[in-house]
What does this fold into?
Amino acid sequence: MILHVTNGDIAADKMAAAGIAPVLRWRDVLHDGDLPADPTSDAFRAARVGFITGRGWAPAHLVASAFAARDAMLALAAKNGDEFVLWFETDLYDQFQLLDVLERLRRYGVAADRISAHVIDAWPGIARFAGLGQLSPEDFKTLAARPRDTVDLDFAGRAWAALTGEPTLLAAIARAKIGGALRFVPDAFARWMREFPWTSDGLTLTERRVMEELADGPASADDLFRAIGEAETRPWLGDLSFFDRLDALAETGAIRADGALYRAGKGKMPARPWRYDPERDAVVAA
It folds into this structure.
């Protein structure tokens, strides 16, 4: 059997409509919250459930049961000798999920020749391609007929170790030359490094863009979210994660809420333990 794995209900529903099945829906916001090194462990699941429910995004029992069912389905397919076709997008959000799935399969002992992927960054007729959810069921049939990308499990393992380890490890992955299904991982890591506070002003790239938008006048949270997304080469930050970042800025006084609008403030973000050094293009200790 072939198990298809993808992120996003819209894409999964269209894949099902195209006759691509079974589809395992992979959900997690891996750029936020703690990431223990072993994604197959109880500690990893507990950390992820705790983070998501702690943010108030969903009830604990629903998140825990969904993750348990998802993890069990992947583990059973690995044990049964199934093949895996991974359908993920090229943005940071999806690339981290792709690495999560691959690290699990690697730890389950699944050989690379049982894993392939469709990872695309453009589609005919779509001017600004943002994700697989933009494809129609017919498009998915066309994509399914294309040759699939291979995966390098050794590189995937190194990338996951960098993502879950000391941030100084990120630069080596960002500078790596890799093909196949993982060819967009270096770009994702390069963008992720810029989400650490910069040595120049102590702001992350997202925080700086918010401040630049507000320098032109007050704006609503939704307007800021749209503007920040449009500034990204590959939009990756969801609305809930972005609103959390606005709250963090507001808590320091760097921005201030004025009814439904935000305005620039005078506060500064506190010192944080890791910083992005643009001259070295690397994350360094503060």
User: Anything to note?
Assistant: The domain at 2-193 is CATH 3.40.50 (Rossmann fold).
